[in-house]
Amino acid sequence: MTKNKLSNQIELEKATEKLGTEAMELGLISNFVVRYFPDCWEFYIESNFFTPPEAYLYLKKLLQLNLNFKEMPQ
Known about the structure:
There is one protein chain. By secondary structure, the protein is of the alpha+beta class. Helix content is 51%, strand content 18%. It has two helices and three strands; from the N terminus they run αβββα. The protein has helices at residues 9-26, 52-71, and strands spanning 32-36, 41-45, 48-50. A three-stranded antiparallel β-sheet has the order 1-2-3. β1 (32-36) and β2 (41-45) form a beta hairpin. The longest helix is centred in the C-terminal third of the chain and has 20 residues, at 52-71. The relative contact order is 0.17.
């Protein structure tokens, strides 16, 4: 069996932070803030609060839509 990369909270939070950084570099979002707490990180994207799972799914979908749009024929 393969181990899920996002099997614990800290791995999910780190992956979300990486996706947010990538989205910022691509210009898909104008701001991305991570508030670090000992038990959980908070993510603010475009002034909206997200929990780690919500932020991960939002950013992943945003990046996938951007990739799909770039691949569409003109």
